[in-house]
Design brief:
The chain is an alpha+beta fold. It folds into 3 domains: 49 residues; 171 residues, Tetratricopeptide repeat domain (Serine Threonine Protein Phosphatase 5, Tetratricopeptide repeat); 108 residues. Helices cover 54% and strands 12% of the residues. The protein contains 12 helices and 8 strands. The protein has a 5-stranded antiparallel beta sheet with strand order 3-2-5-6-8, with no helix packed on it. A 3-stranded mixed beta sheet has the order 4-1-7, with no helix packed on it. Helix 10 packs antiparallel against helix 11 and helix 11 packs antiparallel against helix 12. The longest helix is centred in the N-terminal third of the chain and has 24 residues. The two termini are 53 Å apart. About 1% of the residues have low confidence.
Amino acid sequence: MLVWVAFVLIALVWAAWLFGQVFTGKHRIMAYLSLLVLASLSSLGIYFYQGAHQELQETAELHQRLSGFDLKQLANKADQKEITIQELLAELRLRTESDPNNFEKWRELGNIFLRFGEVARAEQAYTRAIAAKPGSETRIEVARYFMEQGSPEAFENAERHINLVLMNEPNHEGALLMQGINHFKQQEYQAAISYWQQLLQYRDPGSESHKLISKQIEQAQRQLKLSQLNHITVVIDNLDSLLLTRYKKAFFLVRSEKGGPPVAVKSIDIAKLHTPQKITPNDVMLPGVNLWDAENIYIQVRLSQSGLAQPEPGDRFGQTSVENSLTPSETFHIEITESVE
């Protein structure tokens, strides 16, 4: 609507310049009024013609139809395909923007976004919730929601919120506990141990909480020992001769000599390529397949220009010779010398 107001003002300025020397007195006033009416009618005509009025009307009708349902009921309706995701999002935005300082609404909106896998939108909603109710406990609560969702992007958001708490309160016990859990869920056991050991300093020896945290540390240490053996390591020997700035991602693959989909796949950012990479049973793509039972396989590393999993012309790759099987903790050296045609 502001566009049309601006259009009217421009029309009046133009009229003042065009007719300033032609009309005088009442004639000038009549000319201005006529142009004002003409510009306003034209603006309204364009407004209705382009469908903005119809869109607002449809939004109002949708809101009236859904106004009797709470947020959880709306989410269930979207799950059951009774309303579309677009209709759900439109109604949620309308409700939250009408009450911008309502912490409960923004938090519930973030939860619904996470339910539908909309992690970035959930982060926006939670940011508004934190603005409505600032504090460390709110950020830790938000981090917990992200951790429960469990995607890599969600874990990253959880870590960021917890780190913001620890920046201001390095000894915040709830943040130390949650950051340990966050890393444990991502199988980053050494990091989890470090946070929990720091937390243990603030618990009385012999207390129940001290015992529980100690058990968590012991479990993480066991998992760490297993992870130190339960992988193969891949090292790229000719990195210094490669122009890495041309590529976005690197894909590490375990492939069968017979062809077909890869047995295991791991993708990383090019910036991490200088670190030896580990392929574990968690990287297996095929259901029911054990990485250590796979036979007649080879390991391939491909540098992708687009960052897509599908090989494209211009990508570079290298691979090992065919191995009868893989042995845990084995290390493979690869030189990337071939190009995808």
